[in-house]
Design a protein that fits this description.
149 residues, mainly alpha, 70% helix
């Protein structure tokens, strides 16, 4: 059997050049998100609400790509990306709901549609900026860390 102390130690997986790799949970999230994006795009051809699933999948991809190497891969930047992505997905769903409801009723688009659109676009920019920030931070940390450390 395993010694209790040895089983609780978590080794960070490394690549052949001994740099840390993407954590397993982030890789799994990436796979699930990719399936969500594909299903959302396919469903979006027949039902526009399917594109909301694609937006949620994009949020999950962004969260997975904003990882931090190590056993605790959910960094503060990941939390910012997660919240911005959830707000973007909610704003996208709200915008879609207001526009389609107005179109079905043959009325003018409500005034709330414009703030939903611009708020969602702002959250999308924050989410994308968070992913880029996380990638830059990983690169800078990898350069500071000597190989094999």
């Amino acid at each position: 059997m395993f010694d209790r102390d040895e089983s609780l130690q978590h080794q960070v997986p490394t690549s052949p050049d001994s740099r840390p790799r993407m954590p397993l949970s982030a890789r799994r999230l990436m796979l699930v998100a990719a399936v969500g994006i594909l299903l959302g795009i396919l469903a979006g051809r027949f039902l526009f609400a399917g594109l909301i699933l694609a937006a949620a999948g994009m949020t999950a991809v962004a969260v997975a790509l904003s990882y931090r190497p190590g056993s605790r891969w959910f960094s503060p930047v990941t939390w910012v990306v997660c919240v911005a992505g959830a707000l973007w997905t909610a704003a996208t769903a709200g915008y879609w709901l207001t526009v389609t409801t107005a179109a079905d009723a043959g009325q003018q688009v409500p005034a709330i549609a414009s703030p939903l659109f611009y708020g969602g676009a702002g959250c999308l920019v924050i989410m994308a900026g968070g992913v880029v920030t996380a990638a830059v931070l990983r690169t800078l940390r990898a350069r500071k860390t000597p190989p094999g450390a």
